[in-house]
Structures are given as C-alpha cells and as structure tokens.
Design a protein that fits this description.
Layout: E1 20-23, E2 31-32, H1 36-45, E3 54-60, E4 69-75, H2 80-94, E5 97-102, E6 105-114, E7 122-132, E8 135-146, E9 149-158, H3 168-182
Helix pairs in contact: 1-2
C-alpha cells in the first residue's frame, strides 16, 4: 500500500520502521479462552477476516519510548471494510473482560472504551489493560475506517513508563493519505 506513512515524516524514530506488506493474517499465536465477542473484535481489528484483505504493517519505536506501537492497514474489496469495522464496533458493546493465552503466557484483561477521534468515515478507540509483573500493561487501540480500508493503530505502555497513545498527528496524516489514495 503506497498510502503507508513514509519514514521521513515520523518524528523521533529510533531506526526505520520495517514495512511488511502481505496478504492475509500473519497467524500470531494467541488464543482467546473466553468471550467470542472479544475474539471477533480483535480478529476484525487485526485484519484476520475472510476473504483476507491486502495488508501493510508498520512497527514504530520512538526515542524515550521502549515499547513503541504499530499501524496496520487492511484494504478490502466491496463492503469488506464496513463489515470488518462493524465487528469492531459491535464487539466493543459487549467485550469488557477476556482471558487469553499468548506466547508470553496466560493473562486476564479488561477492555475500556475511550472517546473516539473525529477522523475517517468511522472511528473507535479503546484500551486493553492487564496486570503484568512490571506493572499494569495498557495497549491503546484506535481503529478507523477510511473508505475500503480499516486502519488500526496501537501503542503499548507498561507500568506507565511510556506515552500511552499512538500520536494523533500520525493518525490524522495516515487517514489523509488513505483518503487521497482512494479519492
């Protein structure tokens, strides 16, 4: 996807983010142990849909922020983006807690819905909070639909050591680039 953020426009990066373009989900090994609404919410936010969208993934790490964040652009055919975003929005109505087995171990998490930014055609924002040994782990997600693309931005913070939100200026720039590419 040519609409992905160019490296030069992302301030305070440590190194360059790798841009990985692929079709279909990457098969991350994490299993939801409860709450199908939560599983559907995350599958849709991560582009794990059938048929698989064309995707672009970019990890980001900034100076003074050891955990970083990422963006995922999932481009769909037909009404696929609307359908995927609807699953995210509907999942947020009922998914409040879940248990998940990940490569890092089993954890219990709480889902908190936050105020959505006014960007794109539709947007939601939420955070996942889970206790870990270092302190509370919080991953904030912003999911935006722009035409036929669903963009997911996430930012991890552990024990309050880092900025908790993906930079809003970068979200706005990404949305603008997607609008121009589809316009």
């Amino acid at each position: 996807m040519e609409a992905a953020l160019p490296v030069g426009m992302v301030p305070d990066l440590i190194g360059e983010p790798a841009s990985v373009f692929h079709a279909g989900a990457d098969g991350a090994e994490a299993t939801f142990l409860s709450k199908s609404a939560c599983r559907e919410l995350f599958d849709a936010a991560e582009g794990e849909q059938t048929p698989a969208p064309a995707m672009a993934f970019q990890p980001f790490r900034w100076k003074g922020d050891i955990y970083g964040g990422s963006s995922l652009l999932a481009s769909y055919e037909g009404s696929g983006a609307k359908e995927a975003f609807a699953k995210v929005r509907e999942g947020l109505k009922t998914c409040r807690h879940f248990e998940r087995q990940s490569p890092a171990g089993r954890y219990k998490a709480t889902v908190n819905v936050l105020s959505a930014p006014r960007v794109g055609d539709e947007a939601v924002r939420f955070e996942i909070a889970a206790p870990v040994k270092l302190g509370p782990s919080v991953t904030e997600y912003t999911v935006v639909r722009v035409g036929s693309t669903v963009a997911r931005f996430s930012k991890l913070s552990i024990a309050g050591r880092d900025v908790r939100a993906f930079p809003s200026v970068l979200i706005a720039e990404q949305v603008t680039r997607l609008q121009k590419a589809q316009g």
